[in-house]
Write a structure and sequence with these properties.
286 residues; alpha/beta; five-stranded mixed beta sheet; 11 helices; 47% helix; globular; binds adenosine monophosphate; binds fe (iii) ion; binds zinc ion
Length: 286
């Protein structure tokens, strides 16, 4: 029986495939369930709904939200929310605005380093998708400053100067509140090499529902460690390939390979449905 991939990207953010292409590829790989988790947008998910249904592929609503956490950023995956929720739409519109403002600052920092790049070029490279560093990386490749997107991150886009840029992203409590009120569930994305045990303790204290235990950046021991952490805290186990297509990250070969068992998808849906029942109960009482 086909498995699940709850972490994928499309051209609505920094992926190479359109939503339709991704659904067809998922089908070809024999997946039963996917979630499209573009950065701070659900446009890819919305665009995939019909084609997924026609192909008998289970598609969960999903998004990977960049949240502010003191002076750091954390990627929070959200699933199975009401995609028509107006507070969610407001939040995502603000996130998109924050991305555009941040990219303008990134471009200025690069210009100061003597790089001939402008915001319009990066915007054009995003092809209407939610703008991010991978689009700037593509421009640096095209202009011959670096030979690959990875090199662009190592030499320029992963620097402290860029990491320290102040953003207008939402904070974690806001993200958690909006997603939960929309009936969704939250999972800490790819914690593997990013967070210490005390970081994790703090992140879990915000009331997330799950941990992304399965991810291409996690080796067997990492996967086991986070799965045990999830079980000990009665949290969901989520996972996926973080597929972006060929040109952006190293995770391309893992699509259809790094997968999640369907029992975890069922548990996720149950958590969301219980949450929705509670929300309904409260609104009836009003
Ligand atoms: P942003 O959302 O603008 O902060 O960009 C983050 C995205 O850049 C991640 O989701 C990845 O897709 C990509 N990324 C981050 N680090 C690297 C890297 N070292 N090499 C290639 N892509 C990366
Ligand atoms: Fe990405
Ligand atoms: Fe991420
Ligand atoms: Zn991702």
């Amino acid at each position: 029986m086909g498995k699940a991939d709850l972490h994928t990207h499309t051209t609505a953010s920094d992926g190479d495939l359109t939503a339709t292409e991704l659904v067809l590829k998922a089908k070809e790989k024999g997946l039963k369930t996917i979630a499209i988790t573009d950065h701070d947008t659900i446009k890819g998910y919305l665009a995939a709904k019909d084609i997924a249904e026609k192909n008998g592929l289970q598609l969960l609503s999903g998004v990977e939200i960049t949240a502010k956490w003191s002076d750091r950023e954390v990627h929070i995956l959200a699933y199975h929310f009401d995609s028509a929720d107006s507070r969610l739409h407001n939040l995502l519109n603000n996130q998109a605005k924050a991305r555009r403002l941040r990219m303008k600052v990134i471009v200025r920092k690069l210009q100061k380093q003597g790089i001939a790049i402008d915001y319009e070029e990066v915007l054009a490279e995003s092809y209407g998708g939610n703008i991010g560093r991978p689009h700037a990386a593509q421009v640096l490749v095209q202009k011959g400053y670096v030979r690959s997107v990875q090199e662009a991150f190592i030499r320029y886009l992963g620097s402290d100067v860029i990491k320290n840029i102040q953003t207008e992203y939402a904070d974690i409590p806001t993200v958690a509140d909006v997603i939960k009120q929309a009936g969704g569930v939250l999972s800490v994305a790819h914690p593997g090499h990013l967070y210490s045990d005390s970081d994790m303790e703090q992140l879990l204290s915000f009331g997330v529902d799950g941990i992304e235990c399965i991810h291409p950046s996690h080796n067997f021991d990492t996967q086991k460690k986070f799965s045990q952490m999830a079980k000990a805290n009665h949290l969901l186990i989520t996972g996926g390939s973080d597929f972006h297509g060929k040109s952006k990250t190293d995770y391309d070969p893992y699509f259809g390979i790094v997968t999640l068992g369907n029992q975890h998808v069922d548990a996720l849906i149950r958590t969301s449905e219980n949450r929705r029942l509670t929300l309904k109960k409260y609104s009836y009482n009003e």
